[in-house]
Amino acid sequence: MHYVVVAYLCLALLLYLVLGGADFGAGIIELFTPHRHRRVARQTMYQAIGPIWEANHMWLIIAVVILFVAFPRIYSVMSVSLHIPLVIMLLGIIARGTAFVFRSYDAVKDNMQGVYSRIFTYSSFVTPLFLGIIAASVLSGTINLQATTFLDAYVFSWLHWFSVAVGFFTVALCGYLASVYLIGEATDEINRQRYIAKTMRLNIIAVACGALVFAAAHFQGVPLLNWIFGNAVGVTAVVLATLSLGLQWYLLLHGHDIIPRLLAGFQATMILLAIGYKHFPDFIILRGGGTLSLFTQNAPKSTMHALGLALLLGSVLILPALGYLYYSFQKKEEFAEH
Amino acid sequence: MDDFFAARSQMALSLGFHIIYACIGMVMPFFMAVSHFRWLRTHDVVYQNLTKAWSKGVAIFFATGAVSGTMLSFELGLLWPQFMEHAGPIFGMPFSLEGTAFFIEAIALGFFLYGWNRFNPWFHWFTGVVVGISGLASGILVVAANSWMNSPAGFDYVNGQYLNIDPMAAMFNRAWLSQSIHMTIAAFAATGFAVAGVHALMLLRGKNVVFHQRAFAIAAAFGAVAAILQPLSGDFSAKDVAKRQPAKLAAMEALFQTEKPAALVLGGVPDEKNQRVDYAIKVPGMLSFLAHGNFQQEVQGLDRIPRADRPPVLVPHFAFQIMVGLGTFLMAVSALYFFALWRKKAWLRSKWLLRLFVAAIPLGFIAVEAGWTVTEVGRQPWIIYGVMRTRDAVTPMPGIQYSFYVFTAVYLVLSFLVIFLLSRQIQMVPKLYDRPDRPLQPVLA
């Protein structure tokens, strides 16, 4: 059951990045869409992600619950050392989650729409930025359990060049994921072309941010190159991601919608795999070299067993329903009612 | 404000707001499903419009409930890391099942909100029902997790170690049933009265009469049935608390000295310093009866509890009085309402009855908040009753008061926005939902 729990944790984190990430990205794209195109962009986005909006966020809840039930020490160390970025990320989640729904369901469409939109787009940027910062901090060896000063314990644990670079990379990646997804949702050809161009631009930005991450890692003394290229799995993942990137451009230029969507998800998965493989099962790398591992910091066997069963039972109920939800709303019909 | 107090305040605030959003988000889908059912059966378009109007409310409350719930799942760690580090593996079972229930609710809501004219009408209706049932299940599961803090079970506490963990035994602890029943009924009563009250207000203003009458009838029925059932579950809870947490019962009742037989204290101002209650009405033997089902039995007072383990008295006592008082008022209104339905149809259109419902809009929620205050403050100084003190669970991070200020502002803004949105929904009823150009069927009294 231990493996089941670990697998679900990885799956929940991955799906949150890919599906929730596409949600974040929709807001990021809206933020950087010129005013005159925003209305159409918003409409496309609303129809594409409206029905699956709430479900995408459940992956985060699942991940958090798995962490505190099965790996309580990891959860509590993160909660203490990364208190500040977690709070900022949470504020972002609250702001986006409510602004999106308020915008959709406000009975009167007036200037308030602009207020909701502003809250939604800014928080769509801030949330993945801090999600990336948190993810990078966990691995970069900056969490210091022996810290004696406030700055050391609660600020430098997460605020450094590497984490900030990863944060921006996450933002770019989310924008890219959303943009690829929305190509297939565009209702007319002009709109479609716009998303294709956007996808390519965001792809370039994401690659550039990726380069920044390497630069920051070097500057910070994080052995990122070694993590990725020091083992066969990492190298293979990077090679596959690069190949799929080439294929992606080819397909985009030749008018495909659906395969690029899958390829973008595949790339995100490969990035996580390349980083994750080297560290698995370590989840937190502490300053001074200690680690908190998914195989040593786990809850007792009875808990792991019960949680594993709950997750299996849950997925029997959830996955078919979720699959049917995605299937039912993937067609580009006009919505009869919202 | 010291960090410990700030952390407690932030938690109280977050829970206080979440409970309101969650209750409405959990109960309103049932109103919606009833109205939807009537639409499918009668093809009376008013019911379809009502279903749509209510579904907007459900969407708004689901979203605010979901984000405030997400908040709480992080805040447990952000504010009480020591607690979660030990408690997580023990009381995590209901949370992991709740994750499933919540996920299903989110999926079903996607189907329901976006599914008009897309699916078989009865499948569409069913997805709405699933929203309600899964919401109810997650509510019960979260309360089961909380009840573990009041009645720890499923582990052995040996020399500071938590051994022999049994997550199922922890979930089905001795408090889960009474707490879950009490909370669920409270959610139905509070939401029923709040929604009925809003529609009663619109009826008093004479707007969209048929629409609001039907809405009122559905919401009032749920609220009134719940309010009448609630004293039974309250009695069950009281007996349970008397057995498990005598200190909490003593605080609720401001029972400073052990008494045999014990009198029920109505109202009054507890004086913690001098260990007495001033200006109270005492009903002899009644507390013995309510706590133990016997007018003669002894009820343990705070004098039997070591000083360091005593909860504060003033807050739980007042909160308990408020809860019971408001509950009684709602029960009385419900009885009147049922009498009107049964014997005095004319009352149903009278202003005074509608005004009573308008007055009741906030009361159910005030009672819910008061009830939670009793549960949580009455458990102090323990975070895990008898095992871990709240003070020992708090985060080491300083400066929590700033976090408290920020989240206070966030919750206030959020609540203001929700009220603003709902008032705009109601304003727009004539334009969006209850359209005069659509055919109406004859009005039923």
TrEMBL record, chain A:
GO cellular component: cytochrome complex; plasma membrane
Cross-referenced Pfam families: Cyt_bd_oxida_II
PANTHER family: CYTOCHROME BD2 SUBUNIT II
Segments passing through the bilayer: 6-32, 53-74, 80-99, 119-139, 159-183, 204-222, 228-251, 258-277, 304-327
Superkingdom field: Bacteria
GO biological process, one term: aerobic electron transport chain
Matches recorded under InterPro entries: Cyt-d_oxidase_su2
Family: Belongs to the cytochrome ubiquinol oxidase subunit 2 family.
Name of this chain's protein: Cytochrome d ubiquinol oxidase subunit II
Gene Ontology molecular function, alphabetical: electron transfer activity; oxidoreductase activity, acting on diphenols and related substances as donors, oxygen as acceptor
Source species of the chain: Hymenobacter jejuensis
Automatic annotation (TrEMBL), chain B:
GO function terms (MF aspect): electron transfer activity; heme binding; metal ion binding; oxidoreductase activity, acting on diphenols and related substances as donors, oxygen as acceptor
UniProt keyword Heme, yes or no: yes
GO cellular component, one term: plasma membrane
A Pfam family the protein falls into: Cyt_bd_oxida_I
Membrane topology according to the record: Multi-pass membrane protein
Keyword terms of this UniProt record: Cell membrane, Electron transport, Heme, Iron, Membrane, Metal-binding, Transmembrane, Transmembrane helix, Transport
Any one GO BP annotation for this protein: aerobic electron transport chain
Domain of life: Bacteria
Location in the cell: Cell membrane
Segments traversing the membrane: 12-37, 58-80, 100-116, 123-145, 181-203, 215-233, 318-340, 352-372, 402-422
Family, as annotated: Belongs to the cytochrome ubiquinol oxidase subunit 1 family.
Protein name as annotated: Cytochrome ubiquinol oxidase subunit I
Organism: Hymenobacter jejuensis
